[in-house]
Amino acid sequence: MATNSNDITSLLRQRIDSLDTTVRDVNVGTVVEVGDGIARIFGLSEALAGELLEFPGGVVGMALNLEEDSVGAVLLGPYAQIKEGDEIRTTGRVAEVPVGEALLGRIVNAVGEPIDGRGPIDTERTDVIEKVAPGVTLRANVDTPLQTGIRAIDSMIPVGRGQRELIIGDRQIGKTAIAVDTIINQRDTGVKCIYVAIGQKAGQIASVRATLEEYGAMQHTVIVAAGASDPAGQQYIAPFTGCTIGEFFRDDGQDALIIYDDLTKHAWAYREISLLLRRPPGREAFPGDIFYLHSRLLERAARMSPDVGGGSLTALPVIETQEGDLTTYVPTNVISITDGQIYVEPDLFNAGNRPAVNVGLSVSRVGGDAQTQAMRAVAGGLRLELAQYREVAAFAQFGSDLDASTRRQLDRGERLMEILKQGQYEPQPVEDQVISIRCGTSGAADGLPIEDTSRFLTEVLEYMRSSQADLVKVIAETGKLNDDDLAKLDGALTSFRKDHFLASNVETAPDETD
Amino acid sequence: MRRDQHSDRRRVRQYVSAVLETAEEGDDWEDWEDELIALYRVATDAAVRAVVTRPGASADEQQSDFDVISEGIVGDRGRSVGHVLIQDGTFDLVPAVRVQFIRRSETEGPIDRVTVRSAVPMSGADLDGLREQMQTQGRRMIFHEELDPTIKGGFVLRHGDWRRDFSVEARLDALKQALR
Lengths: 514, 180
Prior knowledge:
The complex is a heterodimer of chains A (about 525) and B (about 180). Chain A is an alpha/beta fold. In chain A, about 40% of the residues lie in helices and about 20% in strands. Chain A has 3 domains: about 20-95, Elongation Factor Tu (Ef-tu), domain 3 (Beta Barrel), CATH 2.40.30; about 105-120 and about 140-370, P-loop containing nucleotide triphosphate hydrolases (Rossmann fold); about 375-510, ATP synthase alpha/beta chain, C-terminal domain (Lysin, Up-down Bundle), CATH 1.20.150. In chain A, strands 8-12-11-13-14-10-15-16 form an 8-stranded mixed β-sheet, with helices on both faces. A 6-stranded antiparallel β-barrel of chain A has the order 1-2-5-4-3-6. By secondary structure, chain B is an alpha+beta fold. Chain B has helices spanning about 5-25, 30-45, 45-50, 60-70, 75-90, 95-105, 125-135, 170-180; strands at about 110-120, 140-145, 155-160, 160-165. Chain B is elongated. Chain B starts with a helix and ends with a helix.
């Protein structure tokens, strides 16, 4: 005990002796105006753009507008006690947040502080939130799939690791559900997930957290929350904070996925800040650099070259449209920045198609290279068949007589639409998806009553796992399906349809003599 | 008159240039500073602003309201600036004029502003010593003293945009950081 006490005394003495009490000049300014999360500070002649400023009470702000006589700063904390005349000082630092594995399973605010009531986060490193995206030489092609577990997406709008794929659609039609399902599907893949909630109600954020916990997905996920009640400054920096946390995993050679939910509210927060800072408004009152705001953020998603670890950061930004209008300013900007979009359509949602993905308007520009060969083999013609179905279905509404070939197209299309329906929080492994899609494209589900399609899929998967376990294993492990395997799969599906499904459902069986 | 951020900046620059020239001619920098501060206090009062800039009132009516309100608070110099701004419909630019006057009287004029904040009143000799050390040839110093017991001891010096902290509190803070 005495030794310990002596050690501590000597440590204290050592620290006191080495204490640097040199008085340094600090650049300061005076608050001349404060309100709405913005402060105008007279002075601060040496402040740098983006530099953190220290306000009384430990509140931190970020210098955004450097003007002739003053600095416009966005406040990143409660500002009720800040008043005119308060002295502000520069810190010589830009905004930084803690990064590391210790953040997994935690909820943090936009400045990286834990807000889940589970105590401090033990991280050793911090990193700046504003960084230049990796250059061309540091990047590699997107060639590895990131499975969302959603049949409609993985079959026709495949997402690759390092890709930026936009999820776009009106409110309350399942955009967040797609994002959450994708996170849940990363459970045993090693992909770390970051969910950035921007401008959302606290209840919504709590619901996402509860869902992730329920499905065992929280342990590989970090939630960065800047809710609707947080200052606009926090909502503005939240995606950059999330991105920095994701970049830690990317630069560590791991794979990470980041969801920005949503960038529309992020753009609104930035517009609010810009207008309060009296920056000139442009189209829809957004500032001129709104495109750059999102492009510099999304450019940080990348697949890194093996020379620098080979990690990846995949971004799924979410954009909320009004009345399905894709042509407004922010959606068009983000569509042009990203490598494709998943368009979620209200009409499909209201017709009971979940997920309500419109595969006609959705596209993945780089994910095709990352799709598994097995999925390409079974889903190659799916998009075309659905397009033909939609065209024929539009004419069929008029009730005119249809020839046999048109009836077949309608029949096939209806079954394909049924096969693409999928419950929420039920992401599917790739082998199950391949078998399910093949049921539709090979015609194994043709002629069955529509209401039996879902049961047919469930039973065929059970059948395949029990009677064709080797084939299922090959698809799961290699992601490949050669001609022999494809023939074997088709044979198994036909056999299941005739000998098992129809045999046990004689009363609903279609006439097979056609 | 069409107003935007750039035209406002230009106008503020013009007003302040005129004030600086007048202050230089009269060599009464300190008086101008005091009166601009008084004008600023009046102009930033929400009730005063509502009366002076009320819609429908002519500039002359606004000016006469302003004269009544600022009587005995703002001197002739400050009121004359207020009149010009009211006539131009730019009364809301008073804070910007004050801020730019402070800045430009230092960069373009001969003024150095020094504020010394101490926990207990400093002796005359100490203040004279400080003043002597801070004084630069050819410059006029506007010297303010403030009492602030929260710094516990020592003093904090502010000169323009720079601060030097010789307080006990700053040293205790440094010690706290070192022991953390």
